[in-house]
Amino acid sequence: MKQKLLTYATLLLIFLASACDPMPDIQGFDQKKWQDDKLGCSGSRSTEVALLLKHKKQFQGISERTVIKILGKPDKVAFFKRNIRNLIYFTEPGNQCEGNNNKTAGKRVIVELNALGNVTWINEEII
Questions:
Q1: I need a surface site. Which of 33, 46, 109, 122 has the fewest CB within 10 A?
Q2: Domain range for 12
Q3: Coil, strand or helix at 65
Q4: In what order do the strands lie in the sheet with 119-125?
Q5: Residues 6 or more apart from 34 whose CB is under 8 A from it?
Q6: Separation in Å, CA 19 to CA 25, 54, 64, 86, 111
Q7: pTM for the model
Q8: pLDDT tens-digit map of 27-71
Q9: Calpha distance 5→14 (Å, rounded)
Q10: Is the distance from CB of 122 to CB of 109 less than 8 angstroms?
Q11: Residue 39 host element (H or E)
Q12: Considering the chain, what percentage of its residues have pLDDT values greater than 90?
């Protein structure tokens, strides 16, 4: 009985320790403005990109869950070999927006996650 209790307590401690993830401190970043601009179609994200990239080192090693808390659900997810994933957030209007069929895709922020689901890098890409 004591062994079971000790096992449960250890598992609970491990779970609680792994649930804690430091939140990047991005002074001046308007999280609501970013999250409300789905697909970057209103262009609101473009004003926040510089702040985000200025603090990209703070994103190193944080979990996917924390990225989604900050940036919201990604506009697109790309899967690669060895369980590497990219979370894609469009930052300006392009062909991903309704009514822009003749235009190419706009700029986007890519957040790369390793096989463990932690951020390895973040950068802006122009398509």
A1: 33
A2: 2-125
A3: helix
A4: 76-79, 85-90, 108-113, 119-125
A5: 44, 45, 48, 71, 72, 89
A6: 18, 26, 12, 22, 20
A7: 0.80
A8: 889 999 999 999 998 989 988 999 999 998 999 999 999 999 999
A9: 14
A10: yes
A11: none
A12: 55
